[in-house]
Design goal:
The complex is a heterodimer of chains A (290) and B (383). Helix content of chain A is 37%, strand content 21%. In chain A, the strands form two sheets. Chain A has a seven-stranded mixed beta sheet, sandwiched between helices. In chain A, strands 9-8-11-10-12-13-14 form a seven-stranded mixed beta sheet, sandwiched between helices. Chain A is globular, with a radius of gyration of 19 Å. Chain A starts with 10 loop residues before the first strand and ends with a helix. In chain B, strands 1, 8, 9, 10, 11, 12 and 13 form a seven-stranded antiparallel beta sheet that branches. The model of chain B has no long low-confidence stretch (mean pLDDT 91). Classes of the chains: A alpha/beta (290), B alpha+beta (383). Chains A and B meet through helix 1, helix 4, helix 5 and helix 8 of A and strand 8, strand 9, helix 4, strand 11 and helix 9 of B.
Chain lengths: 290, 383
């Protein structure tokens, strides 16, 4: 088992002929991902790396039975690409695109509520279940199959920590980069819930950042709903204080969004909170009794 | 992108929000002339992109041109929480009956716009939120439906408003939501929104933050960006799509991805060093962008060594290595540079570096080792 993507994933790549889309399609194919189709409007009928290219996601789905998508479409068109994917019945959608307007994302997030689908991202590295399916831009060489679930707001920091886990001989069930944007399709809590239900996942690593209060909400969830041990790391202890204007943000989040405050909330909920990436791997080993 | 009060008000007027007449001034003389034009009692308000100007003495209520000249002379050049006042807004007066608080922001957890309204405006609203949360009416808006008329009525009634106040606040709210959406704002805040003795509802202050990711479709707003207020290196970084922040130490930090960069700052601090600045090249940076980033980081005089920490996903190690070498060749940077390269195409990148390593480039395997090395080199004085 794994979460979100596995052997049954049939992937369509939106923006397959673009620079990033083309490069990472090759890498996903090398990882053994079942990439069944690509979409680039106006390039239907072509082939890329042996993958048939279609003009629309609907067409791609009808022809190939795709059930998941990964999006490499430029920011002005990315929200539209998510809508297209949702309307075509994709169950898992990973939106890699960075820089989508927040108002576009609020509309997307609203629409997802009407669909039986999971959107990961945007501005995220995607999802990778080692040895099963790679729907991501993550460097696969650093992964090894195993029992640790990873969920993170940060892309590169995930690689850093996964690398440390692998070097210690600790494998991963699934790694999910949920993205660092203000509005994302799926929060920590939803992913933590999926890991809790996954019999293969024996420990979860949660990687957070300063800003917002997603980590505090996750801490509450872990305390109330989870049996699986959780190890957390928040980056940005020494980051300069943000120069946010206005009071509304502080009123909404109702508390501090510093790494210190977040780590405290996590520890208060009985979660092991590391102070640097290397310590994460140590705490995971401890949680697994290794 | 944060907007100055005077810029925000001009935009809000285009959405039919009512404000007082005002004139922006860059000198005490201009301010005095503005006061003469406006006539009567005026407020002289510091224009800074940070809150708390009232408490810092950045607002004065004055009665004639002479007083205005004095007040503006005092406020211009003032430092308010690290922001230098370079302009004041001279604004006409009004007879105020009541002060309200109104804002619309993006509620990240709910993934929807959130309206906050309180009849206890003007004061420290965060304190109201803590001590008297029931005094703030909170309403989420469905972004696909927009703000519905019944919601406006609910807010107004929940706040206990009647008559002119109810009508005026309702109208303001409707227009402010249009502005929030139309401007692609992540925050519009009016504190205070006032009811005048003659029954008008006026926007007395404006704090607007426009979502940077939407600026491609708001060229007019993007043009309002205050180049002078920005650090020149931050400005240059922004122009080429890099995130750069200046700090006070002596280790320059360059990395990819906000999380890794923040973590790198933490690790440098733990190694006993102090970051001089940091630059996030983001995802998918090519050789040219890497070169630009290195140039920006090292152009800060305080930098004694550079820690170059890349874990490639969408960013490719070979591009990074080529960018680094071309930057060194082009600019002749002699500072010690500690490189830690991992992830996508990292092997290829390390090979490129190994074949052409300039004397000042040191490679390290791990993030911790790289941080220790950079801190040590900075301590020994890189320049």
């Amino acid at each position: 088992m794994a979460i979100l993507v596995d052997d049954g994933t049939r992937l369509v790549v939106q923006g397959i002929t673009g620079r990033e889309g083309a490069f990472h399609t090759g890498r996903m194919l090398e990882s053994g991902t079942n990439v069944v189709a690509g979409v680039t409007p106006g390039k239907g009928g072509q082939k890329h790396d042996g993958v048939p290219v279609f003009n629309t996601v609907h067409e791609a789905t009808e022809e190939t039975g795709a059930n998941a998508s990964i999006i490499f479409v430029p920011p002005p068109f990315a929200a539209d690409a998510v809508f297209e994917s949702l309307d075509s019945g994709m169950k898992t959608i990973c939106c890699i695109t960075e820089g989508i307007p927040v108002h576009d994302m609020m509309r997307v997030a609203d629409f997802i509520g009407t669909k039986d689908a999971t959107l990961i991202g945007p501005n995220c590295p995607g999802v990778l279940s080692p040895g099963k399916s790679n729907v991501s831009i993550m460097p696969r060489d650093i992964f090894t199959p195993g029992n640790v679930g990873v969920v993170s707001r940060s892309g590169t920091l995930t690689y850093q920590i996964v690398n440390e886990l692998t070097q210690r001989g600790i494998g991963q069930s699934t790694a999910v980069g949920i993205g660092g944007d203000p509005i994302i399709g799926t929060d920590f809590i939803e992913i933590l819930g999926k890991f809790e239900e996954d019999p293969e996942t024996e420990c979860v690593v949660m990687i957070g950042e300063i800003g917002g209060n997603a980590e505090q909400l996750a801490a509450e969830f872990v305390q109330k709903e989870m049996q699986t041990p959780v190890v957390a790391y928040i980056a940005g202890f020494t980051a300069p204080e943000g120069k946010t204007m206005g009071h509304a943000g502080a009123i909404v989040s109702g508390g501090e969004s510093t790494a210190e405050a977040k780590s405290e909330a996590l520890r208060g909920a009985g979660i092991r909170a590391a102070t640097n990436p290397s310590e994460v791997a140590e705490l995971v080993a401890e949680a697994l009794g290794r | 992108m944060d907007l100055y009060e005077y810029q925000g008000k001009e935009l809000l007027r285009s959405y039919d929000l009512e404000t007082l007449p005002g004139i922006v001034a860059g000198t005490a003389e201009e301010a005095a002339r503005a006061a003469e034009t406006l006539g009567g009692t005026v407020a002289v308000k510091a224009q800074v992109l940070i809150g708390g100007r009232g408490k810092a003495g950045g607002i004065a209520v004055v009665h004639n041109a002479t007083e205005t000249r004095e007040a503006a002379g005092r406020i211009l050049g003032m430092d308010i929480r690290g922001h230098t006042v370079r302009r004041v807004y001279v604004e006409g007066g009004a007879e105020i009956e009541k002060e309200y608080y109104l804002s619309i922001t993006v509620d990240r957890a709910a993934k929807r716009p959130l309206i906050l309204f309180s009849t206890e405006g003007g004061v420290d609203i965060e304190e109201v939120a803590e001590t008297k949360p029931e005094a703030i009416v909170r309403t989420h808006v469905d972004p696909l439906l927009g703000l519905l008329p019944y919601q406006v009525r609910e807010i107004v009634f929940a706040a206990g408003l009647e008559g002119d106040a109810a009508k005026g606040v309702g109208r303001t709210l409707t227009h402010l939501y249009e502005a929030f959406e139309g401007l692609d704002a992540s925050l519009v805040e009016i504190n205070p929104l006032v009811l005048t003795k003659d029954g008008r509802v006026l926007t007395l202050d404006s704090k607007i933050t426009v979502d940077n990711s939407s600026l491609y479709r708001h060229k007019d707003i993007a043009d309002l960006h205050d180049v002078e207020a920005a650090d020149p290196q931050e400005q240059r970084a922004q122009e080429v799509g890099l995130q750069y922040v200046k700090l006070d130490g002596n280790v320059g930090i360059l990395g990819n991805g906000a999380g890794l960069v923040m973590s790198t700052l933490d690790v440098v601090a733990r190694a006993g060093g102090e970051p001089a600045n940091f630059c996030d090249v983001g995802g998918g940076a090519d050789a040219e962008k890497i070169a630009e980033a290195l140039d920006i980081v090292t152009s800060n005089e305080q930098v004694e060594s550079v820690l170059f920490n890349i874990f490639g996903g969408i960013t490719r190690g070979d591009e990074v290595a080529r960018g680094l070498l071309s930057a060194i060749e082009r600019t002749g940077i002699g500072l010690p540079i500690v490189v830690r390269l991992d992830g996508t195409n990292a092997e290829e990148g390390r090979r490129i570096l190994a074949e052409n390593t300039p004397e000042n480039v040191h490679t390290e395997e791990t993030m911790l080792d790289a941080a220790r090395r950079a801190v040590e080199l900075a301590r020994n004085g890189g320049r």
